[in-house]
Specification:
By secondary structure, the protein is an alpha/beta fold. The protein has one domain: TIM Barrel, CATH 3.20.20.70. Helix content is 44%, strand content 16%. It contains eleven helices and eight strands. Strands 1-2-3-4-5-6-7-8 form an eight-stranded parallel β-barrel, surrounded by six helices. Helix 8 links the parallel strand 6 and strand 7. The longest helix is centred in the C-terminal third of the chain and has 17 residues. It is globular and about 45 Å long. 42% of the residues are buried.
Amino acid sequence: MTKTIDPPVCIALDVSGLDEAKRLVDELAELVPVFKVGLQLFTAVGPAAVEAVHAADREVFLDLKVGDIPQTAIGAVRSASGLGVRFLTINSSGGREMVKAAVEAAEGGTNILVVTALTSLNDDSLAEIGIGRSISEQVDAMAALAAEEGAPGITLGAGEVARVRSAHPGLFLLVPGIRPAGAELGDQKRVGTPAAVVADGADLMVLGRAVTQAPEPARALEAVLAEIAAPERSGSKKGVRVEP
């Protein structure tokens, strides 16, 4: 049975200290169901970050972008599953065999999300690292690979959501690089607004600095939730396609 994530918003705990992470969770947990624990926080405090989110009865998106030989990836997936995280990213650059191994290691627990192309990359970035495809071609190819190997979902840029949703209606689509209107782009190149990605068929979006570095994070988040509420009222909201 599928389970809808409502609202479809994940807050990125991109901080270096556990106290700061707990403060954000305490302030925002009543508004969102999922928090992202990424490399910065996990490297600093480890599983304690996951435990802090679970203590607030919220779910964890562990964004480690695992990319290694298949056996090492299997170990990482099993460890993440042991922590009880809902989502774990793996990097498509690890290749098909690694993706397959990671999906099998999850065994229906943690949901594996394949990173198609970082949202800080564009066509020129791919060329510089020897990838001859355009961003669009790379995302499409990695989405197809993920679907073929049974991965529940992928991460992708805002501008790719509508196209990939049409091609792969069963994939869970998580979108980082979300910027409310007027927010600074920072190091992101492929961004979108909350309302637009929901309308295009995204299942979950990640919000970071625009909320967590705002003078009043809860107020900033409430403004985003109000923005995406309009599509919900019109009946166009998409349901989530991931097993609980």
